[in-house]
Amino acid sequence: MTFLDIETVEKLEDIMMETLSTSRYRHCFAVAETAATLAYHWGVDEHTAFDAGLLHDMMHYLPDDQMLAKAQEYHLPIDAGARANPMLLHGPLAAAILEQDYGCDNQQMLDAIRYHTVANPQMDEVAKIIYLSDMIEPGRPNWPGLAKLRALSMMDLDMAMVYAMESTIDYLAQRGQQPHPDTEKILAVFRDKVAQKTKWRQHMSESRSAQEILEQCRKLAEEKKARDISVIPLEGKTLISDYFLIVTAGSNRQAQSISDAIELAMKEAGTPPLRIEGYSEARWILLDLGVVVVHIFQDEERAYYDLERLWAGPEGAKQPEKDASEQ
Ligand SMILES: [Fe+2]
Ligand SMILES: [Fe+2]
Q1: What distance in Å separates the CA atoms of residue 37 and residue 129, rounded to the nearest whole number?
Q2: For residues 240 and 183, what is the distance between their CA atoms, to the nearest angstrom?
Q3: Residue ranges, CATH 1.10.3210.10, the chain
Q4: Which of 70, 78, 199, 234 gives 20 to 30 Å between its CA and that of 218?
Q5: Which numeric CATH code is attached to 6-143?
Q6: d(CA 160, ligand 1 centre) in Å
Q7: CATH 3.30.460.10 domain extents, the chain
Q8: DSSP secondary structure string, 27-57?
Q9: Which residues have C-beta within 8 Å of that of residue 10, sequence separation ≥ 6?
Q10: What is the pTM of this model?
Q11: What is the helix (H) or strand (E) element at residue 92, kind and residue range?
Q12: % the chain with pLDDT above 70
């Protein structure tokens, strides 16, 4: 796979500085940095995520007529949705230009750029990260669902995609706009992925009750001197789990030691964690035990993500702030 060399990326940055508005140019860098952070968290290539984030909106400046003309020049398929809203072509067009004019054959990066607006059922982790980073980068204006989408992006990329797409559909509906005709179909694919995980979770809970697992984890965290232990019952609020157990650790070592103790105990009990995220960085370790998700935070991350505020109350309204021209 060919990455773009430094000179090419710098050249593209210069072109973007000339063609994009200042706010769009800044947005591109913010998406790149957010994407690299998420890539590190999810164990995928940070370099690919950064470059995809940086270049995802490089053709955003073109007006509708030129967008359509360029798309034809690069032999892109133009469906009814794109004909009605040519701005939807800015991702596919950027990918085509990078591939054909700049020799980029990093398909993972090209797909992430291609799918960042309308999404696609085939999206891999990097593509999901770019789609989400586009919505959650720090410069985006606040909207009621933003904090939850940021937290979900760290917990479960498919669930975050469902939340992001539903929020976008709601937002467009409120403005009397239609999403791309494929959006509902793509959303159904992501909902299905989440449902599969939920089935697995239900299967797991047949061997041990959620309360039993919760109490064991709480005890282990207490033994490892975790602070501020709290439990959020989630029934009916999210498909992620039945309970969140949230604890604070004072150091990387303490966070990892709590995680190790729980992982070992769960393996011994025959219900090993489905996944453990964030272990090496140890700022927010997430152990997914199916019916219980254990979050081991350090102070700063616990305050920033504030899961109690996001999930302890009723489900809030969702209204993402997206460009009117984009989905
Ligand atoms: Fe975009
Ligand atoms: Fe963007």
Answers
A1: 10
A2: 23
A3: 6-143
A4: 199
A5: 1.10.3210.10
A6: 18
A7: 210-312
A8: HHHHHHHHHHHHHHHHTS-HHHHHHHHHHTT
A9: none
A10: 0.87
A11: helix 90-100
A12: 91
Ligand closest to Cα of 118 equals 1
Tens-digit pLDDT profile for residues 117-173: 999 999 999 999 999 999 999 999 888 889 999 999 999 999 999 999 999 999 889
Give 261: exposed, middle or buried? Use CB within 10 Å, 0-12, 13-18, 19+.
middle
Structure tokens, 230: 């709290």
Span from the CA of 150 to the centroid of ligand 2 (angstroms): 16
pLDDT digits (tens, 9 = 90+) for 73-100: 999 999 988 998 999 999 999 999 999 9
pLDDT at 178 over 90: no
How many angstroms is it from 19 CA to the middle of ligand 1?
14
**How many Å apart are CA 2 and CA 9, to the nearest integer?**
13
Q: Provide the CATH topology of domain 210-312.
A: Beta Polymerase; domain 2 (3.30.460)
Torsion of CA 177, 95, 43, 164, to 10 degrees: 0
Q: How far is the CA of 146 from the centre of ligand 2 (A)?
A: 15
Residues 6+ positions from 156 with CB-CB distance below 8 Å = 194, 197, 240
For residue 154, how many other CB atoms are within 10 A of its CB?
20
Q: Give the Cα separation of 218 and 289 in Å (integer).
A: 13
Q: Is 220 exposed, middle or buried (0-12, 13-18, 19+ CB in 10 A)?
A: buried
